Automatic annotation (TrEMBL):
PANTHER family: PQ-LOOP REPEAT-CONTAINING PROTEIN (PTHR16201:SF37), SEVEN TRANSMEMBRANE PROTEIN 1-RELATED (PTHR16201). This is PQ loop repeat protein. Its main location: membrane. It comes from Periconia digitata. Keywords: Membrane, Transmembrane, Transmembrane helix. It is a multi-pass membrane protein.
């Protein structure tokens, strides 16, 4: 695919709107993490992969000569995801704040160097009509960003469809950013199918998360109502704990399976396995910020 030529005004306007949304999308999530001092339910791997994806994302946007807002967008996205990832390792893995900050700054320096190097490396070849390096960079960005969503289904399975730890304001802003960026590509002279597909998938996945949580609310309406009448939250009521503990913790199941494999295939008592699963599920129940 050849780089973009003249950028229509509509593409610039739509791209600017999308970039504004994506420049602030993670701010509500970062504020929530800071206030609650918890990132339970927010996968650190998702934030890290999203941050890394900003590098090939930025290279591809520059090489394709997208409109300026879409070139600025991956830089802001990379920075905000990096901050959120640092919060995950501070609040979730109990790293010291200054250690996480130094690691994050070092990563940003590496990201900047790699992005600049790749841009200067592939531009001459792309100008000569050699397109595969740019296409490869675009595919890498696509896989990294979509791969960031991979832990989400497991989180939903563990909590029976409930979205925990992810701020819904963030999801709404992120969805708008992806939607307007998609519309910006549509308005360009030539539609970029790779990143168009990326933005469309982001919209679909995030709508699926919201729908999953709404279904959880419908299914637990009676339990939440009875808990409220008793002056308790869903997570404080015994009925709520029992209902939520029936979720499938894939990580705990795999851990038990590997433990049994290391012990030479010896069977563990069923009661012990059930107790471990219930305890793990109960420990992972944390009230969401917006429900």
């Amino acid at each position: 695919m050849a780089p973009q030529g003249e950028i229509p005004l509509a593409a610039n306007i739509l791209g600017t709107i999308g970039t504004v949304f994506w420049c602030v999308q993670l701010v509500p999530q970062i504020i929530r993490n800071y206030r609650t001092k918890s990132t339970e339910g927010l996968p650190a791997a998702m934030m890290f992969l999203w941050s890394v994806s900003g590098v090939p994302f930025g290279v591809y946007a520059i090489a394709q000569q997208f409109n300026i807002p879409l070139i600025v967008q991956p830089q802001c996205f990379c920075a905000l995801c990096g901050v959120s990832w640092a919060q995950c390792i501070v609040y979730g893995r109990k790293w010291r704040a200054w250690t996480a900050t130094l690691v994050l700054l070092a990563l940003f320096a590496v990201f900047a160097g790699v992005q600049a190097g790749l841009v200067f490396a592939i531009r001459p070849a792309y100008a000569r009509g050699i397109e595969w390096p740019v296409l490869l960079i675009g595919i890498l960005a696509f896989l990294l960003l979509i791969g960031g969503y991979f832990p989400i289904p497991f989180e939903l399975l563990k909590r029976r469809g409930r979205v925990v730890g992810i701020d819904f304001i963030f999801l709404g802003i992120d969805w708008c950013g992806a939607f307007f960026s998609l519309m910006s590509l549509v308005a360009q002279t030539e539609f970029d199918s790779l990143f168009g597909t990326l933005y469309a998938l982001c919209c679909v996945i995030e709508m699926t998360m919201v729908i999953s949580h709404l279904i959880w609310r419908v299914r637990t309406k009676g339990i939440r109502k009875r808990a409220n009448e008793q002056g308790m939250s869903f997570d404080e009521s015994e009925e709520g704990k029992e209902w939520q503990a029936k979720g499938w913790d894939v990580g705990a199941s795999l851990s038990i399976m590997f433990s049994r494999s290391r012990l030479g295939g010896e069977e563990e008592p069923t009661e012990v396995m059930e107790e471990e699963t219930v305890q793990t599920s109960s420990k992972n129940m944390v009230p969401n910020a917006v429900v």
